[in-house]
């Protein structure tokens, strides 16, 4: 209908009357009355006022990257430029991986002392147990590196690089079940609806590569367990273009990038320009910022047609890289392959890459389960960190490894010499970070002899989030978004930056 | 956001301070006529007052719209702006009501003893006053009005300039400025909240209603230190909610003064043993160079950059990001693969565009862009660089020699370049250099290990 016309004109009579209205609107816009009406429109449209994204600018002429933005970011000198968050979903057992508790061996089968549990709430899965028999890890631990960090036999590859890692052994969280706990870690609230960390960072700092999304999530296909929902990488109340884009775990990470049959794609640019015009008119008429988000997404999808096949193509990776990541890395969609993909995305300056690996929920058969999970993830994790380091990218890339909570010292279900289960434990667990601005070869925090309570330097989920933002040059108390009448932030009204783990 | 607002809106907005005086005039005029009318009744007056009110209402509406446009440009303190905004809207609405009441369009049931005309006019004038006051504060700052008032003025003591940190009198140069910026608003001789005043040393020593503000030599037991260290939600936390809290550095200075300087008002830093942390904070407060290294590499002070220059650089294909808001310090990235030919000129032209920014660039990445030794002559002039990424480029030891003038550089990325162990000497010349990434170069694991054994820095990071 609108081929090579500057003005949009249809041959449909009904539409023509609407087009006339638009012409009148154009006229009013250029008069002071129209301007007054526009200002009033903006006044009633307060959501727009608080969002950082204005009308979508042409990326080629966009000055967003250095122009003053009203958010005033970064607040201080950043250390991190990008992040890869390796989320180990399910709650990895700190007792069988990093938090070595030798004294438990002598207490095998004894009941967990009440003074340790101190009335702590348990999940419905083990609360009715008549006894809480202590289960020492059956896995062997050794100290590694110059930092003498303890790592169990389940993680042989990671144990080689402990001098690059910063272990936080005093992590604790508020939630005791999977979904609220993951949601809490990713969005700062146990209830769904808030923006994910990646969305906050995208909103606050924008993109370093206009051709790829700022926030990409990857879920590995060789882990299964508690479900993950796309809202975990959702934008919540932030403008929609800040939501995480999930790459599928398979051969085609993004579907329908190629042209359909019998279409050569030559006039797609022209089609998108007209569509943009139409959407622009809809924005003028309704002022809904989501229309701008939609325009931005169309443009992003267009650029992704060329940028995604380029970045997901691993054919030019040498064999020794595949060997480093392990045999799984040749099988697209596995954790190891996703680690390799993450490195490639980070190399392209994608700011936030979020990996998820499910299956760390060892209620039963804990030793076997932990070994199985580690086998699928250990080599990939270690290879990613090494690979980033040798390319000099660990200098400004933050690596985070961790789950949503830890696991109990007592056995859920029957305890035998060789087998036990562990229930959810939010009061103490281990995470580690590496790279940009974090002390390498360092262990922070300590738990008691039961890995049940933290006895030194606790780090709450909100503290972790505050520290993460701090590394990006963001004061977590000052990155806010007004929604439903109040200003929200990732850490809500909590959180202290853990300065002791920073360089 | 700023780019979001059409210039024309901002242009109109600037008329707000001009137009806003119309309703002020109209409405005060109407009020004066009403008072006059109390003594000299005249039917013509009623008409004039009605007209003045109508003029006031319309001009208030216009002023409000213009004011809103002006506020879109940003630049104003949010909480004060909110007050002005809402008072402005309320004033406009009440003025319309006053006019409606006056012209009989809006009947208010008569209440005994209350004259609605007079009451509504008085309310309007009161609102105009409050709104105007907030507006004035926004424009001129909140201390503008009474700065030269004959009452409550404090003589500003000018401190003699010092050339060395040690010369600073702890109280005058470090403690008092903190009190002046964060405390004296409520604890001065004019406004003695809790009976406490920090006006001078005499008042300070006297303490407040709850006893002494400090106990010399015991910061932990001192009331003021206890109060600033409380949980911010705590009722007794100082400064109270809504006021800017003390920074950690400021709290340390106060504690240091009470503990180590024994709360003496005369003692100088030179007379005391100064922990590194305090040296660092004090240096930053007084504008001396902080050489403790605690707060990281000191950031260079640079001039702001002309937007045209930035635009030009972006036009050449660079990505630019300001590292700290309004610091004028930048990260510059030339996306990998932007340069594909070995023709030196192509990159040289681009690099020359960066020269006006040579002091402002802290992080520079030219990874995989056919950078050659000749180009490093230009890059060697970027003396404030802290991080330089040169990986995957055909540069050799000859080029590295040109970078030795960059003293603050901490991380130098040279992976998959053609450098050899002969560059080690040049690495040592760069005093700040901590890490060199040398995977995939001619440097062998052995050479790197031997170098690291001999030298404390930089670490030579190889492949895995």
What can you see in these coordinates?
- The complex is a heterodimer of chains A (503) and B (464).
- Helices cover 31% and strands 15% of the residues of chain A.
- Chain A contains twelve helices and 17 strands.
- In chain A, strand 16 (481-483) and strand 17 form a beta hairpin.
- In chain A, helix 1 packs across helix 2, helix 7 packs antiparallel against helix 8 and helix 10 packs parallel to helix 11.
- Chain A is elongated and about 85 Å long.
- Mean pLDDT of chain A is 88; it is low at 43-68.
- Chain B is mainly alpha-helical and 464 residues long.
- Chain B is 44% helix and 5% strand.
- Chain B has helices spanning 7-13, 16-19, 21-39, 43-72, 78-102, 116-140, 170-182, 201-206, 223-229, 248-259, 276-286, 307-315, 344-354, 375-379, 397-400, 424-429, 445-454; strands spanning 319-322, 330-333, 361-365, 387-389, 411-413, 435-437, 459-461.
- Chain B is flat.
- At the A-B interface, helix 2 and helix 11 of A face helix 1, helix 4, helix 12, strand 1 and strand 2 of B.
Main features:
heterodimer, A: alpha/beta, 9-stranded mixed sheet, two-stranded antiparallel ribbon, 12 helices, 17 strands, 31% helix, B: 464 residues, mainly alpha, 17 helices, 7 strands
Concise account of the structure shown:
The complex is a heterodimer of chains A (503) and B (464). Chain A is α/β, with parallel strands linked by helices.
Estimate the strand proportion of chain B: 5-15%
Low-confidence stretches of chain A: 43-68
In whole angstroms, the N-to-C terminal distance of chain A is 61 Å
Portion of residues in beta strands of chain A equals 15-25%
**In angstroms, what is the radius of gyration of chain A?**
26 Å
Determine the mean pLDDT of chain A. 88
Counted beta strands of chain A:
17
Estimated helix fraction of chain B: 40-55%
Main structural class of chain B: mainly alpha
Question: What is the H-and-E element order of chain B?
Answer: HHHHHHHHHHHHEEHEHEHEHEHE
Radius of gyration of chain B in whole Å, from Cα?
Answer: 33 Å
Number of strands of chain B: 7
Summarize the largest interface: chains and residue counts.
A-B, 42 and 47 residues
What sort of overall outline of chain A do the alpha carbons produce when their principal axes are compared?
elongated
* Helix and strand pattern of chain A: HHHEHEEEHHEEHHHHEHEEEEEEEEHEE
Task: State the end-to-end CA separation of chain B.
Answer: 46 Å
Oligomer: heterodimer
Instruction: Supply the number of helical segments of chain B.
Output: 17
Helix fraction of chain A by DSSP (H/I, runs of at least 4)? 25-40%
């Amino acid at each position: 209908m609108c081929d090579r016309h500057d003005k949009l004109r249809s041959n449909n009579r009904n539409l023509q009357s609407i087009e006339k209205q638009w012409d009148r609107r154009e006229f009013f816009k250029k008069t002071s009355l129209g301007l007054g009406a526009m200002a009033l429109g903006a006044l009633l449209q307060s959501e727009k006022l608080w969002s950082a994204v204005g009308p979508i600018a042409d990326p080629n002429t966009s000055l967003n990257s250095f122009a003053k933005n009203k958010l005033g970011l970064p607040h201080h000198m950043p250390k991190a430029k990008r992040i890869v968050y390796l989320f180990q979903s399910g709650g990895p057992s700190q007792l069988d991986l990093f938090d070595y508790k030798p004294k438990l061996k002598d207490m095998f089968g004894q009941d967990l002392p009440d003074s340790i549990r101190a009335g702590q709430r348990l999940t419905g899965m083990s609360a009715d147990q008549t006894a809480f028999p202590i289960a020492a890890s059956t896995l062997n631990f050794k100290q590694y590196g110059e930092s003498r960090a303890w790592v169990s036999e389940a993680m042989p590859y990671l144990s080689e690089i402990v001098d690059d890692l910063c272990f936080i052994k005093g992590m604790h969280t508020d939630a005791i079940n999977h979904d609220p706990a993951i949601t809490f870690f990713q969005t700062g609230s146990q209830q769904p609806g808030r923006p994910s960390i990646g969305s906050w960072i995208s909103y606050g700092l924008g993109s370093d590569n206009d051709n790829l999304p700022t926030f990409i999530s990857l879920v590995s296909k060789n882990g299964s367990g508690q479900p993950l929902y796309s809202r975990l990488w959702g934008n919540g109340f932030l403008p929609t273009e800040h939501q995480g884009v999930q790459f599928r775990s398979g051969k085609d990470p993004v579907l329908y990038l190629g042209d359909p049959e019998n279409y050569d794609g030559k006039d797609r640019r022209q089609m998108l320009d007209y569509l943009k015009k139409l959407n622009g008119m809809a924005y003028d008429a309704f002022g809904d910022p989501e229309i701008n988000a939609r325009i931005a997404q169309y443009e992003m999808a267009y650029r992704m047609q060329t940028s995604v096949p380029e970045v997901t193509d691993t054919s030019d990776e040498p064999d020794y890289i595949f060997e480093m990541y392990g045999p799984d890395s040749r099988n697209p969609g596995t954790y190891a392959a996703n680690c390799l993909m993450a490195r490639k995305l980070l190399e392209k300056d994608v700011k936030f890459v979020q990996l998820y690996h499910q299956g760390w929920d060892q209620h039963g058969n804990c030793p076997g389960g932990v070994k199985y999970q580690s086998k699928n993830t250990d080599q990939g994790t270690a290879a990613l960190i090494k690979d980033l380091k040798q390319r000099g990218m660990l200098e400004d890339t933050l690596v985070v490894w961790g789950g949503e909570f830890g696991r109990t010292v007592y056995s859920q279900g029957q305890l035998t010499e060789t087998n036990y289960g562990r229930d959810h434990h939010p009061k103490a667990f281990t995470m580690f970070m590496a790279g940009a601005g974090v002390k390498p070869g360092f262990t922070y925090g300590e738990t008691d002899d039961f890995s049940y309570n933290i006895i030194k330097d606790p780090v709450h989920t909100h503290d972790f989030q505050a520290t993460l933002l701090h590394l990006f040059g963001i004061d977590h108390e000052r990155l806010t978004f007004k929604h439903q009448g109040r200003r929200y932030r990732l850490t809500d009204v909590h959180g202290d930056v853990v300065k002791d783990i920073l360089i | 956001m700023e780019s979001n607002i059409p210039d024309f809106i901002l242009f109109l907005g600037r008329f707000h301070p001009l137009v806003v005086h119309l309703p002020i005039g109209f409405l005060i005029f109407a009020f004066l006529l009403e008072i006059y009318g109390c003594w000299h009744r005249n039917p013509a007056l009623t008409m004039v007052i009605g007209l003045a009110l109508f003029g006031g209402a319309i001009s208030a509406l216009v002023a409000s719209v213009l004011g809103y446009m002006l506020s879109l440009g940003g630049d104003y303190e949010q909480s004060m702006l909110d007050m002005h905004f809402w008072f402005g809207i309320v004033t406009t609405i009440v003025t319309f009501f006053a006019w409606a009441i006056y012209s009989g369009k809006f009947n208010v049931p008569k209440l005994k003893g209350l004259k609605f005309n007079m009451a509504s006019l008085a309310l309007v004038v009161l609102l105009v006053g409050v709104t105007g006051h907030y507006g004035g504060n926004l424009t001129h700052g909140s201390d503008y009005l009474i700065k030269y008032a004959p009452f409550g003025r404090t003589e500003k003591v000018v401190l003699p300039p010092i050339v060395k940190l040690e010369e600073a009198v702890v109280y005058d140069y470090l403690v008092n400025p903190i009190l002046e910026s964060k405390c004296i608003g409520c604890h001065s001789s004019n406004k003695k909240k809790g009976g406490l005043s920090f006006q001078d040393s005499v008042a300070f020593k006297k303490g407040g209603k709850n006893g002494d503000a400090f106990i010399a030599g015991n910061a932990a037991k001192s009331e003021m230190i206890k109060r600033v260290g409380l949980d911010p939600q705590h009722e007794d936390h100082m400064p109270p909610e809504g006021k800017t809290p003390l920074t950690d550095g400021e709290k340390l200075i106060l504690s240091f003064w009470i503990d180590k300087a024994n709360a003496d008002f005369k003692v100088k830093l030179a007379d005391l043993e100064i922990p590194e942390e305090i040296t660092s904070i004090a240096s930053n407060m007084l504008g001396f160079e902080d050489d403790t290294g605690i707060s990281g590499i000191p950031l260079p002070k640079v001039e702001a950059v002309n937007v045209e220059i930035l635009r030009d650089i972006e036009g050449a294909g660079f990505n630019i990001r300001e590292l700290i808001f309004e610091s004028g310090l930048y990260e510059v990235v030339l996306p990998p693969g932007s340069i594909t030919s070995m023709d030196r000129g192509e990159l040289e032209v681009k690099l020359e565009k960066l020269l006006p920014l040579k002091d402002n660039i802290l992080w520079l990445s030219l990874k995989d862009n056919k950078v050659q030794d000749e180009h490093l002559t230009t890059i060697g002039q970027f003396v404030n660089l802290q991080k330089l990424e040169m990986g995957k480029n055909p540069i050799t030891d000859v080029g590295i020699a040109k970078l030795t003038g960059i003293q603050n550089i901490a991380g130098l990325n040279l992976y998959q370049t053609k450098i050899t162990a002969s560059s080690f000497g040049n690495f040592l010349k760069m005093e700040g250099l901590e890490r060199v990434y040398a995977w995939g170069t001619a440097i062998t694991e052995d050479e790197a290990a031997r170098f690291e054994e001999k030298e404390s820095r930089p670490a030579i990071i190889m492949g895995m």
